[in-house]
Amino acid sequence: MNKTDLINNISTSSGLTKRDVETVLNGFLGEITDALTKGDKVQLIGFGTFETRKRAARTGRNPQTGEEINIAESNVPAFKAGNKLKEAVN
Predict the structure, then answer these.
(1) Which of 30, 54, 75, 84 could form a disulfide with 46 if both were Cys (CB 3.0 to 4.6 A apart)?
(2) What angle do CA 10, 29, 57 make, to 5 degrees?
């Protein structure tokens, strides 16, 4: 399912217009992005938690030349599923 499919499904099940659903979905995703950018955690009880994690600096290898390269430390987004979501999937 992609974003367009999600918007269509929510619009059909809720009776809202596709434009309204898209506005809400974009706002929701924007707020999660803003919170993660600030280093905050977004916790949706029963669904899951969005957070950032530090990825340590490491040495990698260029697959074409075999040359070693240094990869800098970075922050990466992460999602941890909640219990209700885990139960629904299983």
Answers:
(1) 84
(2) 140
Tens-digit pLDDT profile for the chain (90 aa)?
A: 999 999 999 999 999 999 999 999 999 999 999 999 999 999 999 999 999 999 999 999 999 999 999 999 999 999 999 999 999 999
Residues 7, 25 contacting (CB under 8 angstroms):
yes
Partners of residue 27 on adjacent β-strands:
none
- pTM of this structure: 0.80
How far CA 52 is from CA of 6, 38, 64, 70, 84, in Å, comes to: 25, 10, 31, 22, 22
Distance of CA 80 to the CA centre of its chain: 10
